[in-house]
Amino acid sequence: MKHLLKMLDLSTEEIIEILNLADQLKYELKHGIPHPHLKGKTLGMIFQKASTRTRVSFETGMYQLGGYPLFLSSNDLQIGRGEPVQDTARVLSRYLDGIMIRTFEQKEVEDLAQYGSIPIINGLTDFCHPCQVLADLMTIREFKGSFDGLKMCFIGDGNNMANSLIVGCLKVGMSVSIACPDDYQPPKEILDFAKTYGDKFEMTNSPMQAAKGADVLITDVWASMGQEGEAEKRKKAFAGYQINDELMAQANADAMVLHCLPAHREEEITEKVFEAHANEIFEEAENRLHAQKAVMVKLMAN
Ligand code: CP
Ligand code: NVA
After folding, report:
1. pLDDT confidence of 74, banded at 50, 70, 90?
2. Which residues form the Aspartate/ornithine carbamoyltransferase carbamoyl-P binding domain (predicted)?
């Protein structure tokens, strides 16, 4: 494993190794056991979109590992004025030991990896959000004990989160059911991958159908970063694609609810369901820290 660009690139074994290391690093942090695996290393963090969790968890995580994180806003980098990714990648590879990037196009992340010579970590693109889904898988295993026989149901937009969840959950052996409006389905690349899992994957436009017998229910915002101009149109398209009490009644009684955050209460999830599952959702947010530390150690430690 040289980079973390998308879940499609990871084998099941690599995912499980990351989750096991994440559990260990979480234990060490909670018990005050130092773990300076990245002493003297630097991580550049390029942000072309806003972030609370990704920025703070990477920055803190790098510090806890003994390394140094540099926050690089695209407003201040020459990349924001049109310097090609190919050149940025080759320059930054001379100074840094790794790069985390949050941007729009997946191609930009893939290009950084192709032209640079250091590990690249995808901190969210329009196509996928692998760091979030590694934290989600860590949280599911933490609460449920294992992935065996579990069904994950995603309700809403066939977006970056849906894409990474479909791939990640299928790879670790879960069944996946996704409910989205016809015009907001995941891209063909993801659906083609999912179809190779036969009846372990289901896509429908009925949230009630998708939620039946689910062990984990997950949703995300209806308008992602960059889609703010379509917010009103999307509110209409996604009416009914909400995690609420009626939907929860279809799921297993002990079903968990996850949300990558930020959440829009009374849109994709009701306040009541959100607060009833806040312990899971905020453990999920915390697990960003541990899962990403594991990714950095895997990619950047000698
Ligand atoms: N879930 C997530 O990636 O949050 P941020 O946008 O705050 O980083
Ligand atoms: N789908 C959301 C996820 C935010 C963490 C977005 O891209 O804005």
Report:
1. confident
2. 2-142
Q: Kindly state the average pLDDT of the residues 14-39.
A: 98
pLDDT of residue 76: 87
The CATH number of domain 7-129+288-300, selected from 3.40.50.2300, 3.40.50.1110, 3.40.50.1370, 3.10.310.10: 3.40.50.1370
Looking at the CA of 260, name the nearest ligand: 1
Kindly state if the Cβ of 260 falls inside 6 Å of ligand 1: yes
Residue 129 falls in the annotated catalytic set = yes
For 134-168, how does the pLDDT look when each residue is reduced to its tens digit (9 = 90+)?
999 999 999 999 999 999 999 999 999 999 999 99
Q: If you compute the radius of gyration of the chain from its CA atoms, what whole number of angstroms results?
A: 19
Q: Which atom of ligand 1 is nearest to the CA of 285?
A: 1
| Active-site option among 128, 288, 290, 292 | 288
Q: What is the pTM of this model?
A: 0.98
Q: Does residue 80 carry a pLDDT above 90?
A: no
* Pick among 3.40.50.740, 3.40.50.1370, 2.40.70.10, 3.30.750.24: CATH of 133-284: 3.40.50.1370
Q: How far is the CA of 94 from the centre of ligand 2 (A)?
A: 31
Ligand 1 centroid vs 127 CA: distance in angstroms?
15
Distance separating the N- and C-terminal Cα atoms of the chain: 13
Catalytic residue among 48, 64, 128, 129: 129
Which pLDDT belongs to residue 302? 83
Closest CA to 51 of 73, 70, 26: 73
Q: Is 160 annotated as a binding residue?
A: yes
- Give me the helix-helix angle, 106-115 and 85-95, nearest 10°: 50
CA 32/CA 12 separation, integer angstroms: 30
**CB-CB contact of 244 with 273 (8 Å):** yes
